[in-house]
Amino acid sequence: MKSRKRATIHDVARHAGVSAATVSKLLNGVTTVQQTNVDRVMAAIAELGYRADPVASELRQGQRRLIAAIVPELDNPFFGALISGIEDAAEKAGYKVMFGTSRESEERELEVIRRMHDWRVSGAIVVPVHSERGRGAALLGDLGITSVLLDRVSASSAFDTVAADNFRASADVAHHLAEHGHRHILVHCATSTSEAVRMRVEGFTSCMGNIDPGIRVDVLLGDADQQHKCTVLGEHWDRYGRTMPTAIFSLSQHSTLVVLSELRRRKIAVPDQVALVGFDDADWMRKTWPSITAVTQPVDIMAKKAVAALLTRLKNDGNGYPVQHLERCVLSIRESSHTNDARRIMRRNLDQSRT
Predict the structure, then answer these.
(1) pTM higher than 0.85, yes or no?
(2) Quick one: average pLDDT of 323-334?
């Protein structure tokens, strides 16, 4: 079936028997158009199914109200929530949003940025593949796209940045586990190593070092396919023998799932044999048993802050020093880390290894 061509104001004018200028005046709210012409134009619009072309209109006015939003993926609930928040805040300000995904590839990130530039977006909000020092950020600067970098970033000399306070949130986890007597902890991340992951590791290890230098912290980071991630964790776990950790801090939702999968495969009970804390809360963490202690990121606040920062930059033609926005996270303590302290876990694990 042949598709129907989009009607233009010239089609409406011909159908109504008036000039294109008359149609344009009516669409732009001019009230001096004769009522008979108004009726004829409105009838033509209804019959032809005419819709205004926002791109053409904005180009004529020399003003674009289109924002690009680029995230690593949409399958991750965190990034999905970010996109939803960005869209909501932008639409309330009268802007439309065009979305793209980098799929954790810097090469694709560059291509998506170029594509957004071709559409002449007003500005961009980007969650970079790695950090504010990556190739994507450099290209945004080279193309002159007014941008805000979101989530996987620290302070930048070129862009406003918005991120969760990963360092402080991970320090809160360190205090929580130390207060429960844990002196051997595995920090695990199965996803791509980014600036956010680096700050989580640094926040946790530096805080533990300040609390007690004798506390052992093992860090296991990886970026392989799904099956290999569980294998790597399993091989690492086998090396512990009787000295396995009493707690695990997983640095992403995906990492928490990998850890739970491997622990259940080995019939290692949470929290009876090992405590578990995850970074980035999710609905399933609250509903599973045991419920998972997790760091809750202020996703909606971050999205709104990013849009507000970008619109301020657009209003000021990008002038002014870059600003870093760090948003406080909340540690939601649940069954996976609260039921047993480390001493009970170690005694239970030792008793089971002897039987």
Answers:
(1) no
(2) 96
